[in-house]
Design a protein that fits this description.
By secondary structure, the protein is of the alpha+beta class. It has helices at 10-14, 45-48, 53-56, 67-81, 127-139, 144-159, 201-209, 248-256, 289-333, 342-350, 375-385, 399-402, 478-506, and strands at residues 22-23, 27-32, 38-42, 86-92, 101-108, 111-118, 163-169, 175-182, 193-194, 212-215, 223-226, 261-269, 272-281, 357-362, 365-370, 394-396, 413-422, 427-434, 438-442, 450-452, 455-457, 465-469. It has a seven-stranded antiparallel beta sheet. It has a six-stranded antiparallel beta sheet with strand order 9-8-7-13-12-10. The chain has a five-stranded antiparallel beta sheet with strand order 15-14-18-17-16, with helices on both faces. It is elongated, with a radius of gyration of 29 Å. The structure holds biliverdine IX alpha. It is an enzyme of class 2 (transferase). It catalyses: ATP + protein L-histidine = ADP + protein N-phospho-L-histidine.
């Protein structure tokens, strides 16, 4: 058949990504009880801080850090114990030796996780000052696509990543790159589709809670946390940790691309993942916690602007849907009916719902305009629809699957929206959408998962290939479905009136 067979990705979904027990090399992690005793540490505290990991376990933090740093940390921990989930400190001289660190703190049950990263680079640029003008550029855009392009450019400026993409999720959790900003060295991913399984469900859940993750170097060593259990005997929960080492499966995916560093930031809409800003670099690439915090702010503001824009577009659409009622009523009052005014009616509906043709039986006469089946096929569709629940709009973006054999594939009709206009007998106004020669460009074969010794690996080949899904149209949008509900009521009313007018005339 034309349906893609997606592989069983349950193994990916079972990977416990927040409990893998390692950190990346750019930072170290300490778990501390609420009476300041160190419970667990990552083994790279020696590299990052110059403090031996084994001797830290069981010690107290104040025995190792400078009094000034302890003062700052205490202040932050206070805000955590009074309700904040996390806190940040930038440019702290932890050991009183002039070296500067960024610090991330968050609560994990009754303990605290504290992470340290060395400040990198010399002269510090003011990233926060950049966010404002970048958002101003986003705000000047009129469409979602323009906004995403401006945001991708802004993100490239803020972070220096060589390829920045806005990756948008579809209804089936597959995704497509809708905007991109990249250096000439990088290959374009614009327009590429990726299957849902590339980002398994537990990763999506995590990315709703924690907005940003950076993988500074896919080939860098990772460091275990010792001991590997918390005092209750559970693996340490790294869900909100900023230094968390990521799944080895995903590292392999990035190496296959090939990409050496990756960062992604969640774009949320009403608490749900709308998409991701995905960033790649061909060499190791790290940006410090302070810059990453500016990035998070930028994306939060961008998400807000995006939502405003989408809301406005929806309101415009709803306004046009409302006008449609008035305009159709006026049209019919001027004496037009379905047979004589089909083109006008099609034009009015077309202002609100996108379609390529429409058809209906009016007075038992078949009226069709644009892309439409023949009368016999239409009759088959009506018989099919008569079995669907009454009084509702029916729509599909895969007609052959919804009504097998009803319409010849040669018509190239992919989508159907059917609005009930009469109950006895059941009659429908049908809108048709053409089959998109869906040249979906998948990045790599979505059906191919390389397995080796029972382990699933992400695809090895990333050369884009074309998969032709026959018989599909573009999906009917939620706004179009809502407009169709309003239109359904209008049409019922008009048909009822036409019938009673005729009955009166006949008396
Ligand atoms: C995580 N997969 C991710 C992440 C992205 C993608 C963005 C978040 C981590 C990051 O920022 O790198 C996928 N990256 C993409 C996509 C694009 C991109 C689609 O740039 C497109 C432009 N992945 C697979 C398969 C499995 C898998 C088959 O392809 C499982 C077998 C797993 N992906 C996987 C896992 C994670 C992940 C487990 C979580 C990594 C983690 O956070 O620990």
């Amino acid at each position: 058949g034309s349906e893609r067979q997606l592989p069983d990705l349950s193994e990916c979904a079972r990977e416990p990504i927040q409990f893998l027990g390692h950190v990346q090399s750019f930072g170290c992690l300490l778990m501390m009880s609420n009476d300041w005793v160190i419970q667990n540490v990552s083994t790279n505290t020696g590299v990052i801080l110059g403090l031996d990991a084994h001797s830290l376990v069981g010690a107290r933090l104040m025995d190792h850090l400078s009094p000034d740093a302890m003062h700052d940390l205490r202040g932050k921990l206070q805000t955590l114990s009074s309700g904040d989930e996390s806190g940040r400190l930038f440019g702290v001289d932890l050991l009183g030796d002039g070296r500067s660190f960024d610090v991330a703190l968050h609560r994990v049950g009754s303990s605290y996780a504290i992470e340290f990263e060395s400040k990198t680079g010399g002269r510090k640029r003011d990233d926060l000052a950049l966010v404002q003008p970048l958002i101003a550029r986003v705000r000047r855009c009129r469409t979602v696509e323009e906004m995403c392009r401006a945001a991708a450019r802004g993100m490239a400026l803020l972070t220096g990543f060589a390829r920045v993409m806005v990756y948008r999720f579809g209804p089936d959790q597959n995704g497509v790159v809708i905007a991109e900003s990249r250096s000439d060295k990088m290959e374009s991913y614009l327009g590429l589709h990726f299957p849902a399984g590339d980002i398994p469900p537990q990763a999506r859940d995590l990315y709703r809670r924690s907005l940003l993750r950076i993988i500074a170097d896919v080939d860098a060593p990772v460091f275990p946390i010792i001991p590997d259990r918390d005092p209750e005997g559970h693996p340490v929960d790294l869900s909100l940790s900023v230094t968390r080492a990521v799944s080895p499966i995903h590292l392999e995916y990035l190496r296959n691309m090939p990409v050496r560093a990756s960062m992604s930031v969640s774009i949320l809409r009403m608490g749900e993942l709308w998409g991701l800003m995905a960033c790649h670099h061909p060499e190791p690439h790290h940006i410090d916690y302070e810059t990453r915090s500016a990035v998070e702010l930028f994306i939060q503001l961008f998400s807000y602007e995006l939502a405003l824009c989408e809301d406005q577009l929806e309101r415009d659409q709803a306004g046009r849907a409302h006008d449609l009622h008035e305009r159709l009523v006026m049209l019919f009052e001027s004496g037009v009916d379905f047979a004589s005014g089909l083109d006008r009616i099609a034009e009015e509906i077309g202002a609100v719902i996108d379609f390529d043709g429409l058809a209906l039986l009016s007075e038992e006469r078949y009226c069709a305009q644009g892309l439409a089946p023949d009368e016999a096929e239409f009759a088959r569709l009506e018989r099919h629809l008569a079995r669907a629940p009454a009084g509702r709009v029916f729509c599909t973006d895969h007609l052959e699957q919804a009504c097998p054999g009803a319409v010849s594939p040669e018509r190239c009709i992919g989508g159907l929206m059917a609005l009930p206009i009469k109950r006895h007998p059941r009659r429908f106004l049908m809108l048709f959408r053409s089959e998109v020669a869906q040249n979906v460009v998948w990045a790599g074969d979505p059906t191919k998962v390389v397995t080796d010794k029972g382990r699933i690996h992400p695809r090895r080949s990333f050369s884009a290939w074309r998969e032709i899904i026959r018989g599909h149209s573009t999906p009917w949008s939620p706004a179009e479905r809502r407009a169709a509900e309003v239109l359904r009521v209008t049409l019922l009313e008009l048909v009822l009136k036409l019938t009673s007018d005729q009955n009166l005339a006949g008396q």
